[in-house]
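Before the break, one more example. Copy the sequence into your notebook; we will annotate it together after we see the structure.
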Amino acid sequence: MALRCGIVGLPNVGKSTIFNALTESSVPAENYPFCTIEPHIGIVALPDTRLGKLENIFNPEKVTPASVEFTDIAGLVKGASKGEGLGNQFLSQIRQVSAIVHVVRCFEDENITHVEGDIDPVRDAELIETELLLADLETLEKSIYRLNKLAKKEKRSQKELDIVLRLKAHCDSGKMARTFDAGEEELEIIKSLFLLTQKPILYVANVDENEIIQSTRDSNTQALFDFAKKEGSHAIRLCGKIEQEIALLDKDEKIMFMDEYNLEEPGLDKLIHASFKLLGLETYFTGGPSEVRAWTIKKGATAPEAAGEIHTDFQRGFIKAEVIKYDDLIEHGSEKKVKDAGLSQLEGKDYIVRDGDCIYFHFNV
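Here is what the structure looks like once it is written out:
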């Protein structure tokens, strides 16, 4: 399932540093704007301790985790919606992602230039949000112009026009498209506009090492968390510099390094999990002697839709799904014992797959 998070923010806030750590790649992270001009894309494994336990049960030849796709998009600046910097190019790249990871600088460093002159996370977050909103308003104006013409001939176009006009009024008041109250049918029309502020957003406070060591939020970080909450979004905190160092270590060295900084898990793991959640995704498992694998599905997916992630033939010829709950499998230690205990269920086409389900699909094509 190719759903992608776009990493955005002002220049020099640590986007490429965090992307490098995520992908253990070598995207340049220089001290000047627009170093990252072409979007860099990386596919990152979703950390999941359940896979290790399933590996012990099935003893497979290989284990394949779920993944999240990230795009490192170059820094936006004030006026991007009007083409400032490389605004038009960057905004088009954001339009292609499913969710936004907004990195905001919360650390002081006289050696790293801040494009706005000083550290103010809420101002910086609002600056980016404003540019996205201005771009959306332009999109809505074009849509209204087009629908005004069509509405004279088509009843459906008049209905669409009414929705777009209400949404335009909502956005004119400074509100993001994602906060617009819309029904299911209206939401489908809005989705077709590919609005930037319709996308879910996760704020990442990029802090310095001292804040991580002290395990407390300073005033800058707290201000960003409060802003995210007010916006109906979520925020997490990490130190890009530390995360890049951790990413280059082997397993034993990582454990020692994290102990030194009193970290329960790398901040990147939190970022990956939060991004997965932001995309509205969950996982189910298949297991056997050849492979244990985590499959990515949208929350609320039916059994046939989940089967289609393996192969379209599985969905087309779906008969039933044999479902074992992960906890039951771990408790009993094998599929056979779970079945003997009467805990394996046969489910039909209407079954909604739950995160962690272990499934064997029956199909006929």
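Residues 329 and 336 are 9 Å apart (CA to CA). The radius of gyration is 23 Å. Try to locate both features in your own notes.
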